[in-house]
Amino acid sequence: MDQDNVKKTQVQLTNFNENSFVVPYEFNCDTCFLLTSFQSDTLNIEILSPGNCTESIGRIKAFSDTLLIYSHTKPDKVDTIIKFNEQANKIDTTICITISSKEGHSHCMSILTYTVIGLKKEPAFIRYNDHELQKCKDRESFLIPNNDAINYTDKFGLKQGLWIEYYKSGRIKSKDYYENSIIQHGCEYDEKGDTISIRIQPIF
Predict the structure, then answer these.
(1) What pLDDT digit, counting tens, does each position of 16-42 carry?
(2) Distance between CA atoms of 12 and 33, rounded to whole angstroms?
(3) DSSP assignment of the chain, as one string?
(4) Which residue in 16, 27, 50, 168 could disulfide with 58, CB within 3.0 to 4.6 Å?
(5) Residue 86 pLDDT more than 70?
């Protein structure tokens, strides 16, 4: 579509929210959208995106059938340094942007929530940072032995809560408690039921 020849729609971003969380390094997920709702002239959309635990700023643009959504890293600090360059006999201005990570070298995912008003119709195409968005696959699953839900995988494919593994004999092999696929604490047992090892949350 030639966007230069398409009439722009006057829209406004009324809400932008970011929720970032740490996930294991081996967890990978493509950017996709989780939820969209359109009522009257208002669109709400949630986008799941790999991130680096830094705060972001949201922007939007709209054309007749396409909504363009952007996010970029918000700087923690912006300094303007003004110096007089004697050799060139002029003032040099330097802008220094400082960006820090919330979790050091940890791997993050972000849920970006946008509320857009002023749309004449629901957009046929949604693009995020110049890439067309696809709907996220729902990966939710769990087991219910003895009326207790265990081994829960959320809609992103991340392990949450209590996970239990069993030996073929039916005895418990391990009990681990997860948050976003990261073990918070747990134990491993032998077939007699004695504790072999204790697991604790890793330090990033």
Answers:
(1) 888 888 888 777 778 888 878 999 889
(2) 20
(3) --GGGSPBP--EEEEEEEEEEEE-TT-----EEEEEEEETTEEEEEEEEEE-S--EEEEEEEBSSEEEEEEEEPPSEEEEEEEEETTTTEEEEEEEEE---TTTT-EEEEEEEEEEE--SS--SEEEETTEE--BPP---EEE-GGG--EEEE-TTS-EEEEEEEE-TTS-EEEEEEEETTEEEEEEEE-TTS-EEEEEEPPP-
(4) 16
(5) no
CA gyration radius, the chain: 24
Is 49 exposed, middle or buried (CB count within 10 Å of its CB: 0-12, 13-18, 19+)?
buried
Torsion of CA 142, 146, 147, 148, to 10 degrees: -50
Q: What token pair was written down for 169?
A: 């004999």
pTM metric for this prediction:
0.64
41 Cβ contact partners less than 8 Å away, ≥ 6 residues apart: 117, 118, 119, 120
CA distances for 191 relative to 64, 146, 168, 186, 187, angstroms: 64, 21, 10, 17, 13
